[in-house]
TrEMBL record:
The lineage of its organism: Bacteria, Bacillati, Bacillota, Clostridia, Eubacteriales. Its EC number is 3.1.1.29. The keyword Disulfide bond does not apply. GO terms for molecular function: peptidyl-tRNA hydrolase activity; tRNA binding. This is Peptidyl-tRNA hydrolase.
């Protein structure tokens, strides 16, 4: 089994915020795969689909961001999922708005959700997809920025980022993290934008 975790905060007041782009990606994936992420287990909501001989679980922690590790570690332990089959999707202020990067491992950086996951797993060596949300203006508080919503001018870039992240998930599950990195990380944003406009339908909408 593969476990794909999107990070965010539960509650309508957080819908469409920068910190919830991991949830937005899972919402798009669940719609694309025709499943619901509604089963309550291990401090989270889950949904399962099967594709190309693989069983894939999508999960949203319901603990709020700072305790995301409770859900991830609980699911990993209960289903005996190997660390290399875990993929976490989250927002990253160290990447430009709309950029998508896949990594095999790494530190938590400034992200409290990732810090919680690493603490509960006791190991940072698991794949992740980072979606860039940019940095706040000088003098602005980080918490207000990440819990704020995207301005309309950023909608196209973030909608495209969700598409790229979803493609990364498909490649990761079917062909592994190395190929996912090779195919997603090297593509230019301009190339992604032109290709997605012609090839993708049902593009996810980023809420105001």
């Amino acid at each position: 089994m593969h476990l794909i975790v999107g990070l965010g905060n539960i509650g309508k007041e957080y819908d469409g915020t920068r910190h919830n782009i991991g949830f937005e990606t899972l919402d798009y994936l669940s719609d694309k795969k025709g499943i619901a992420i509604t089963k309550k287990e291990q401090h989270g909501l889950t949904g399962v689909y099967r594709e190309a001989g693989h069983k894939i679980m999508l999960a949203k922690p319901t603990t709020y961001m700072n305790n995301s590790g409770l859900c991830v570690a609980g699911l990993m332990n209960f289903y005996q999922i190997p660390l290399e089959n875990l993929l976490v999707i989250y927002d990253d202020i160290d990447l430009a708005i709309g950029d998508v990067r896949i990594r095999q491992r790494g530190s938590a950086g400034t992200h409290n959700g990732m810090r919680s996951i690493i603490q509960h797993l006791g190991n940072p060596d698991f794949p992740r997809i980072r979606i860039g949300i940019g940095r706040p203006r000088l003098g602005s508080e980080l918490v207000h920025y990440v819990l704020g919503r995207f301005p309309k001018s950023e909608f196209p870039a973030m909608e495209n980022a969700v598409l790229e992240a979803a493609k990364g998930v498909d490649i990761f599950v079917k062909q592994g993290v190395d190929l996912a990195m090779n195919q997603i990380n090297v593509r230019k944003k301009t190339e992604r934008s032109k290709e997605d406009k012609t090839k993708e339908s049902n593009v996810p909408e980023i809420s105001e």
